[in-house]
Amino acid sequence: MSRFLSPEAACLAPYTPGEQPVDMQYVKLNTNENPFPPSPKVVEAITWGEVEGLKLYSDPACGRLNKAIAARYGLEPENVISGNGSDEILAFAFRAFCGTGRGVAFADITYSFYRSQAALFGLEAAVVPLREDFSLDVDDYMDFSGTVVIANPNAPTGMAIPRADIRRLLEANGERVVIVDEAYVDFGGESCVPLVEQFDNLLVVQTMSKSRSLAGGRLGFALGSGELIAALNRVKYSFNPYNVNRLSILAGAAAMEDGDYFQSCCQTIRDNRAWLTGQLEELGFAVLPSQANFVFAKSDKLSGGGLYRGLKRNGVLVRWWADSGRIEDYVRITVGSMEQLERLIAEIKTMLEEGS
Ligand SMILES: *Cc1c(COP(=O)(O)O)cnc(C)c1O
Fold first, then answer.
1. Do residues 195 and 202 touch, judged by C-beta distance below 8 A?
2. What's the pLDDT at 24?
3. Among 268, 280, 289, 336, which one is most buried in terms of CB atoms within 10 A?
4. How many Å apart are CA 319 and CA 141, to the nearest integer?
5. What is the CA(159)–ligand 1 centre distance, in A?
6. Residue 243 CA to chain centroid, in angstroms?
7. How confident is the model over 322-330, as a mean pLDDT?
8. Which residue out of 20, 86, 116 has the highest number of ligand 1 atoms within 8 Å of its CB and is therefore the one to mutate?
9. SS3 state at 114
10. What is the Cα–Cα distance from 138 to 152, expressed in whole angstroms?
């Protein structure tokens, strides 16, 4: 390690992103991107005039965007903050609500970025194991006094818990912030947004990366009480006031306002997920019940690593975690277009035939 690293930087646990290859055309089912392009309204919004407008800073308050998000969820703009991906929003939240004597709790099997951010901010992390069947029991978090972060639906399992469970957690301790990461909620599961007006300790984090096809636009947002949003803005204005660029503000607002296109893409993904699950089960896979735009599945014949490597050799990327204990035999497969999924299933069939 470099002698230039500060002691704090030496303790980091950087997140490992899924592969983003530039060398060849993979069927890319490894990072939960949407197979469909953003809404045509997004394309219309990015005019040449707006590109010329890049000479000016973006609106630090993201007014146009936050208004569109608030309108969509029946809230006020002061209940909304936008960020450069929801990863940035999560960072604001960790910085705002956690610190000395105030730790953070999250599941052992969940979005690994929570662990990276806890290390970045030097936080004490309580890692709470999921149950044997990968379900999350909120009772395991009831006595924890620090901030709780729950991905719902969870990643990489795809499994969701009911809103009533989160409500119980919120009611048990009003002094504790509960962050619900709803990156995948548009594909199934119950959103906690309807609880925002009742619980001033609830922060719901969402992203435009998955259900709104804007992963490359880097847009996430959080919904919460005015008090929580003000706390996040305190951090934002201490770090990067112009955190969302001009084009992404326009793209995000246009994507939010095109409800029809959004609904139809999400429905197609749900239909494709059902098809993919059925196909994998027919091939002997165990597939966890997913409410997300991916499935987490394990073959009865091929190891997780064998599947990942074999598929990659044949041009299909899925996500696999080496040395990951009880999820080592699983792969996470993004629900793509039917064309992509048919190709995936064909490759798996070939591997199974070659293996036998
Ligand atoms: C993809 C993802 C995010 C965030 O993505 P951004 O692209 O930074 O908005 C957050 N949480 C979970 C669980 C995710 O899977």
1. yes
2. 66
3. 336
4. 29
5. 16
6. 19
7. 95
8. 86
9. helix
10. 12
| 62 in Cβ contact with 244 (< 8 Å) | yes
CA distance 254 to 46: 10
Please compute the mean of the pLDDT values over residues 2-11 and round it to a whole number.
90
Atom of ligand 1 nearest to the CA of 84: 8
Model pTM score:
0.97
Query: What secondary structure does DSSP assign to 286-355, as a single string?
Result: EE----SSEEEEE-SSS-HHHHHHHHHHTTEE-B--TT-GGGTTEEEEE---HHHHHHHHHHHHHHHHHH
Strands across the sheet containing 286-287? 286-287, 294-298, 330-334
Nearest to 331, CA basis, from 323, 339, 341, 320 = 320
Q: Does ligand 1 lie within 6 Å of residue 215's CB atom?
A: yes
Q: What percent of the chain has pLDDT over 90?
A: 94
Residues 6 or more apart whose Cβ sits within 8 Å of residue 13: 115, 116, 119
136 CA to centre of ligand 1 in angstroms: 19
**Looking at the predicted structure, is the pLDDT value of residue 355 above 90?**
no
**CA neighbor of 97 nearest in space, from 65, 66, 121:** 121
* CATH architecture, domain 40-258: 3-Layer(aba) Sandwich (3.40)
**Cα 81 from Cα 122, distance rounded (Å):** 24
Domain 7-37+260-355 - what CATH class?
A: alpha beta
- Mean pLDDT score of the chain: 96
Annotated domain spans of the chain? 7-37+260-355, 40-258
Cβ(329) to ligand 1 under 6 A? no
Mind listing the pLDDT tens digit for each residue in 172-218?
999 999 999 999 999 999 999 999 999 999 999 999 999 999 999 99
pLDDT tens figures, 14-40 = 888 888 887 768 999 999 999 999 999
Q: Please tell me the residue having the least CA distance from ligand 1 atom 6.
A: 85
Residue of 16, 88, 149, 181 best suited for mutating to test ligand 1, as the one with most atoms within 8 Å of CB: 181
Q: Which atom of ligand 1 is nearest to the CA of 215?
A: 7
